[in-house]
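Hi there, hope your week has been kind to you so far. Please have a think about how the structure follows from the sequence. I've dropped the whole record in just underneath, so have a look:

_____
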Amino acid sequence: AAPRPAPGRADPFVFLFVGALHYYPNRDAIAFWCRDVVPRLRACAPGPFRVRIVARGARTGLPSLPEVSWADDPVDLAAEYARAGAAIVPIRAVGGTRIKGLEAVA
């Protein structure tokens, strides 16, 4: 694969989360990010950032923040990952394999 071009200085850093919101660990993880992590990033980030969430399922009860944008699944995940600077792979509940991490690395 060709190397990804470096983002411009004005481009926001993009954190990407991919998952199904009907699955409790995913819903809990993104709620945690919006509630606890985004405000900390807002306070200390050296530049603009965005949180991109690609998810199936209802968003009801999840915080609405200016830094967060949503895409309904299905989308071109390769393009979403190409635009992202980092993948969000929070592990707050249950066990099993971490497909999100494997997918992001691929």
The mean pLDDT is 84.
